[in-house]
Specification:
binds magnesium ion, 17 helices, globular, binds adenosine-5'-diphosphate, five-stranded mixed β-sheet, alpha+beta
Amino acid sequence: MGKVKVLPKAAANKIAAGEVVERPASVVKELIENSIDAGADEIRVIIKAGGVGEISVYDNGRGMNKEAVLLAPERFATSKIESEKDLDSVKSFGFRGEALSSISSVAKVRIASAAKNEKGFFVEIDGGEVKGKGEIIMDQGTVVKVRDLFYNVPARRKFLKSKRAETRAVAEVVRRYAVSYPEISFELISDGKKLVSADKSEPADRIAEILNDPWAEEPVEIFHSTPSGAAVRGFFAPAEKVKPGRPTQWLFVNKRPVEDKRVRYVVAEAYEAISKRGKPGFVLFAEVPHEEVDVNVHPRKSEVKFKDSSVVYRAIFMAAKQIFKSKPDVVDGGQVPKVGGAGRAAADSKPIAHSHTVQTPEEAISFTQSLLETADREEELHGKAGSEEEAIGWQKDSKILQAGNSYLITELPEGIMIVDQHAAAERILYEKVLTGIQKGEIPMQALVVPVDVEVSGEDLFKGWEEQFEKLGIKAESFGDDMVRIRALPAGVDPKEAGELFLDLLGGIDSAEPSALEENEKDAAAKIACKSAIKFGDPLTGKEADDLLSSLAECGNPLSCPHGRPTTYQIPYKKLEQLFGRT
Ligand code: ADP
Ligand code: MG
């Protein structure tokens, strides 16, 4: 045995490459993620010979300047995290700074890029060695071309599958990102043949286009959110479209495609009553606060670990379960298994089976049963009406009727729901402003005509400009006792600018500017009061739709910030009683 030595850089990169770069599809995945991280809204992938011959990814993202192009293929070079602390809350795909260096060590790579209003620059690397560099003329964006993958790692090359299989794997990667990023146009060309070609579109349309599964033509879309901050947006196979075969079953966590067997069991359990017909197709987007998931467990980041997985799986289960709420007749034998109430959220339930991993279908079933039991118990404990822990089981595309220019009436899986439009708008604005304050960036609207207000008492406002700006209000003093308001948080009625300003100013009873921030909930509630959607305003269909969609996405959709209810739900059972049907 030789002495312990630090590996030469090229060898170390090659070993790291073994983890990141397994096959052409993993190269495509890394390059697409970089393009998404760069803010591109057009991504084009061209491959030859299953990607072993060539992989080129074009994007129209931010691009890189000369220094960045030269640095990008260095190991641990990343512009996305600054220190170890950031690892806890990575929002971008990349952060390890490993992909380009790994790929460059096992292939011939050319990176060409141009940042806004700058000249383009390229670098060429063969097996980790810089072979050429220089200026070029190109539009803003980046092109990475990878040729002769694994030309210097024959062992790897031997393990590649057929050209067709590698092409299919590449196409699968492109299709998955196309589904989670409908706002980006994607194209995949393989040996001159167009395999994917998707213009920007809406999520459901993109799914129908990309999946090519019969169930996905008209998926049932369901939102389900929990007070603990997890939310699920699911596209499920309608019960009557469940057929024998292997439908697409895709999970995305914070838009990242993720492999997860357990989610299949959880959804299958929700479809249990029709399990004889086949497996349900689904595309699920779980949104989980970034601190709650660990994406760093796997070098290719295809697996994630949840800090509290029971919350996520329960939210998924509850969402899937809603498929059956309105259509008991489609269930074989007419029996709908009993679960918690309509659209019950996962709530902030006690973590059950906290670090449990499911290995077998049997285990999965007992795991889901324990979910069901907790849901039932919780219902016994808290009752159903108006509890803050409930989410709304509202399905997008349900018809909405506006009554008295004030109330929205819509259909739920288990009954009807009446929404107080102003209370709902307040709730939505409240949550937006509050997260905005906490994140330090509130979406603002500039006032076309600035609003001037008089403030009594001298110097009352001076020194507070910055604090108000944190609340989304841009204002400046002029003269002795005047303040000019120039911008408000988006969604606030500009007509109420003056009143809102004075309201906030009047609420300060301390001489410390920090008082405003400490009372952020109070401030957010005051701002929410001035929402542009009022009781008595006629709404267009789209406005009504947006209002209910945003409400369904709220952490706490059932009451306004002052505690008044936003919605009133009447179960069909109750209506049946009223009409003497029972
Ligand atoms: P990571 O994505 O983990 O940061 P990579 O090796 O994938 O590491 O990329 C290194 C760096 O190169 C990125 O942090 C980014 O700054 C830059 N980069 C890579 N690809 C692109 C691209 N398509 N557009 C703009 N910048 C890019
Ligand atoms: Mg990357």
